[in-house]
Amino acid sequence: MLPTSCVSHLRVYQPLAAFPARQRARWAAYVESGESPPAHQLVEREARDALLRVLGRAPVVVEHAFVERRGRNVYVCPQNTELRVLEALLSFRRSASDAVVEAFVPARDLEWAARVIRRLRLEDEPGPRAYVQQSAWTVPLTWFALFDDGERTVSPATARQPSRLVYTTGMPQARTRISRALKALAELADEPDVARAAGELRDWLYEFDRDSLVILDYGGIAQTIPFGDLVDDHSAREVGEAIAALEEGDLERAGELYAVLGEHWSALRGMASRN
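^ that's the sequence the OP posted. Answer follows.
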């Protein structure tokens, strides 16, 4: 059986104290209520609600958040589902030609999305941002640049949750690593898209509080991979080795490593889609 959502997530969890007053009060009440489901349940609900929207059965919107506790500290990652959907529409408009965009999304819907985002940002304090990035059927290689292999946790499936692969790091470490990667990628003049993606990721990280957590969750993709292969997946380490090769000027070695990673993730996408 296919998992509910073959989507990976990159999430930023801000300390509760870092939110503006009104948002902080809302999320403090949410945390105290104990209404926050486990991460995999929130992802499954989001996928279900997306399907209902496609079927024309708009779900009741309930604002949820991912919550992490580290000792006495509480970290919150709002789902911001509506905002992420709207931003995805506008991102699609920027990334494709007008003819392609019009074939999939009417201009009036794009104009409506832009108006709603402006309204949301005027109403909040300051305007909302997307705390979550997501990718269907794969994990973008630039995400792995934020993490060290030692920050990786693999968990087998249990009666309460599916198998998981999660990386967790602090915001200072994530920013330092993506800046290092971006400097190294500047040497790849023939791969501007990779450097651009790394630059956008770095800019996104700097929108959040310095004491935040950054978490990469394989999500539903972990359920399409045999557990033994999941245990053997060390993509962050391999991306780190490729970046180190670039820093040393060994473009051939870096190219080989990226090619192997690309083939690995292409094979996983093909396996998942065949299922």
